[in-house]
Amino acid sequence: MSRTGPSVAEAIGRSRLLLACYLVVAVLLVAISAVRFQSPEQFGLVKELTDFDAFHIAGRLAGEGRVADAYDAAAMLKVQAEASPIASFMPWTYPPPFTLLMDSLARLPVGAAYALFALASFGFYLAVLRRIAGEWLLPVLIALLPIVMLNLRTGQNGFLVAGLIGAFLLAWRDRRAVAGLPLGLLVIKPHLAVGVGLLALFGRRWDVVGIAAAVVLAAAGAATLAYGVGVWADFLGAVREAGAFLAGGYYPMYRMTSAYAALLTFGVPAEAAMIGHAAIALAAVLALAWAALARLGFAARAALICTLSLFVSPYSYDYDLAILGIALAFVLPDLAARTSGRALAGLLALAWATGGYGMIVNAMQPEAGAAGQAGAGGGLALAGLLLVTLCVATGWLLHRPRAGASDALAPQGA
Known about the structure:
Layout: H1 4-13, H2 16-38, H3 51-63, H4 67-70, H5 73-83, H6 96-105, H7 110-133, H8 137-143, H9 145-154, H10 158-173, H11 180-185, H12 194-202, H13 206-227, H14 230-248, H15 259-265, H16 270-293, H17 298-308, H18 322-338, H19 341-364, H20 383-398
Helix pairs in contact: 1-19, 2-7, 2-9, 3-6, 6-13, 7-10, 7-18, 8-18, 9-19, 10-18, 12-16, 15-16, 16-17, 17-18, 19-20
């Protein structure tokens, strides 16, 4: 087998100059985006709402004592229409603890709040990736380029959620009870915490489970004190509304990575699409249970848990693919040792296509992003199919023979 691929990847991984350039460009992107959030007229643009605008509006409504309006789609969309003449569709369905976090950020102007959230969450994500990947950090970031650009530009929470998952896995690997802290904080997006939650339960680490439960209760209690008990009824009402919007194709489906979105955009009726997704989600949960219990090396276990967690929820977006970075950071050294340069280049292209599919559709068909009415979800949702292809190809390459060192995928007591 040719050693060209691994040697090139190793050289890239050791390049501090390239890493510095990558990070400088990321900071510049945040700086430019902050101006676009705050004063788009400086670039000759009209204010167009992006994901963090919805975060900021929800936080502002909560701070004004109007948290019920944040969770009411009609009221939320009315406030969004007042903020921008360009139609948008961004109902608020995050749990109250996340609303409380946005409440605190919304006390800042939107540009400053966005920059603080984007840079802090990206810095946290980088710190976790660095601990996992070591000198392979830059190759991981290169593979994640479209996903990094997407999260930085929109101010989404993909870095925060993926960083919490990675922090849990690191603490779990080191057998530290503090793993319960990031696990509990994943209450902000619980549908992505299924894999790490099952690992904690099946691992019978009751100290970790206890800390996680305490964090969840504290976060829920803080939100209840801030907004009253009724906020939970408001939140559940928003979740029910979101289910109806999802079935009607109101969301930009082409940016979703779920089996449900793929089936729906291929013309499968909503009920049948949900049944199909439920079957795949059940298979993913069973595979997660197996991954938690099987005799695997920890790197393989962690990568499987990260990857399989992406197949559980019907409401999963391209920005959630930041979790793939955690998975890749655990297995990239072993992957490079088994794979030719041509195969690595193919995986890189597939990773870019998976993470960048939504941006490509939006650039080629700007009208695809005009969601907000039934069936207006844009083009085909192919990102999920690309994700499956990427996972299968990576798994196959990881099972190829490796020269020399011990096999990271071999059964171990991790």
